[in-house]
Amino acid sequence: MLTTQEAQNRAADTVAQARAAGADAADAVFSADTALEVSVRLGALEDVGRSESSDLGLRVFVGKRSASVSTSDFTPAAIAALVERAVAMAREAPEDDWAGLAPAERLMHGAAPLLDLDDGGEASPESLRAAALAAEEAARSVSGVTNSEGGSASASRSIWALATSHGFAASYATTGYGLSASVLAGEGGAMVRDYAHHSARHRRALESAEAIGLRAGERTVARANPGRVESGAMPVVFDPRVGSSLIGHFVGAIAGQAITRRTSFLLDAMGTPVFAEGIRIEDDPHRPHGLRSRPFDGEGLPVSPCALVENGVLETWLLDSASARQLGLSPTGHAARGGAGAPGVSTSNLHMVNGHVPPATLIADISRGIYVTELIGMGVNGVTGDYSRGAAGFLIEDGQITTPVAELTIASNLKDMFRNLTPANDLEFRYGTNVPTLRVEGMTVASG
Q1: CB under 8 Å to 157, separation ≥6 — which residues?
Q2: Which residues contact 287 (CB under 8 A, 6 or more apart)?
Q3: Residue finishing a domain among 178, 201, 221
C-alpha cells in the first residue's frame, strides 16, 4: 500500500494532468485499503479472507459541464487515457449551474487535526482466529444456546487522499478492527438468533472476545419462544442498537439533495421544533479515534463539531457545495466522496445527547408497550415521513420488560415520532451513530 504522502501525490498529479488536457478545474480522490477477516463456526476455522483494493476517481469541469471517471489501473498509459476520456465526456455533458469545486476561500489550510485514527498495527491471521474462536466459545457456553452461526474477527487499514486544482491536497490513514459472534437458541421453526459485535480504530480498544460472546449468547437465549401481542396504540421503546436508525432517517431528510429536490418530509422545517424540547443531536468529526472521524470533508473543507438539533429545533441542513449554491447558502463541511461521481453528504460521529432518566425510569409508567431490539425491512417514506417496519423484541408490562415477542409491525409518521421521543441517560459511544434508549409515544403496533 502507498504511504499517505504517495497517495496524495498521485491524486495531485492526476489533477495536474487533467488541467493540462484542457479541464478548467478538477479534483481527484485516491483510496486504498487492505483487509483481513477470519471466521469460525462450531470451534473450527471456516474461512480466511484477505483483500487489497485501490481506486482513483477523477472529476473534471469544462465551463459548467462536468464528468467523473474512475480506475484501478495506475499505469501511466491508463491514467493518461482516463484523463483524456474525462475531459472529452465533460465537453459533451449538459451544463449544470450549480456544479463546481468548493469555494476556494473555504478550503482547509494548515495542518489537519490529529485524530489518532491509525494505530499502525497489523493483525496476524492466527491472532484473529484466536479472537473469533474465543468469542464463539463464550457465546456457545451460555445455557440455552443450541447452535452457532459463528464468530468473526477482522482488521483493516485504509488511506484516503483528495487533491483539487484550486490549491487543496491532503490525505489520512485509518485502521479498523472488528469482532463478532452470532448464535441460535431453540429448535426447528422456533429457532431464534441474535448477535453482538464491537468495532474500534485501535485494537487495544476492542472489547474482550469473552464479553462479546457472552452478550451474544445472553441476547439470543432471552429471545427464545417469542409470543405475539395484541394490536393497538402503545409506547415503543427502542434499544440503542436499533434506535440509531431513527437518526439515520432524520439525516436523510436534512441532506442537501433531498432539500433541493423537494423530496424531504422536513422540507420546511428549518428553524422550527422537529424533536421534543430539550433534545440535542450533535455531529463530531473530531472525536479522537472515532469510527467516522475525519480531518476534512470530501471537498477539502474543514470540519468541526456542530449541533444539528438544539433544544428540539432543526439548526442546519447537510450541504455540499452544489446543494449550497442551489439554496443560496454556504456548504457545511459534510461533503462525502466516493471513487466516482459528484460528492454527496454524510455525517461523522453522530449522537443524540443523553436524557435525564435511566432506562428503568423511562419505562416505569408503561402499563403495556414494546421494547424493540430488532427492526426488519425498510418501510420508510422519505417524502412523507410515513414509517412502518417489522420488529421483534420484548413486551413491557406494568413498567417491566417481560416476555419476548416477534412478528410485529410498528407504524407511525417520523414527524410525530420525533416530537414524541424521549431519550434515557444510557448513551454509549459504540457505533458511528449513537443514541441512548429511546421511548416513542403512541405508535401503532400490529401482530403479524
Answers
A1: 1, 33, 34, 118, 122, 173, 174, 175, 176
A2: 115, 293, 348, 349, 429
A3: 221
Domain shared by 210 and 233, yes or no = no
pTM for the predicted model, two decimal places:
0.94
Count of CB atoms situated within 10 Å of the CB of 272: 10
Q: How many CA atoms lie within 13 A of 180 on its CB side?
A: 17
All cell numbers assigned to 308: 444539528
Task: Kindly state the cell numbers that stand for 66.
Answer: 462536468
Enumerate helices (H) and strands (E) in the chain, giving the number of each. Answer: 9, 19
Count Cβ neighbours within 10 Å for each residue of 100-114 and write b for 16 or more, e otherwise: bbbeeebbbeeeebe
Specify whether the backbone of 110 is left (phi greater than 0), alpha (psi in -120 to 50) or beta: left
Give the CA distances from residue 211 to residues 134, 139, 193, 216, 283, in Å, rounded to whole numbers and listed in that order. Answer: 10, 9, 18, 9, 29
CB atoms within 10 A of CB 300: 26
Rounded to 10 degrees, what is the CA torsion of 385, 386, 390, 395?
Answer: 90
pLDDT in tens, 278-310: 999 999 999 999 999 999 999 999 999 999 999
CA-nearest of 202, 152, 197 to 173 is 202
Q: What is the pLDDT of residues 47-75, one digit of tens each?
A: 999 999 999 999 999 999 999 999 999 99
Could you give the 3-state DSSP secondary structure of residue 100? coil
Q: 215 and 240: one domain?
A: no
- The total number of structural domains that make up the chain: 2
Residue count (the chain): 448
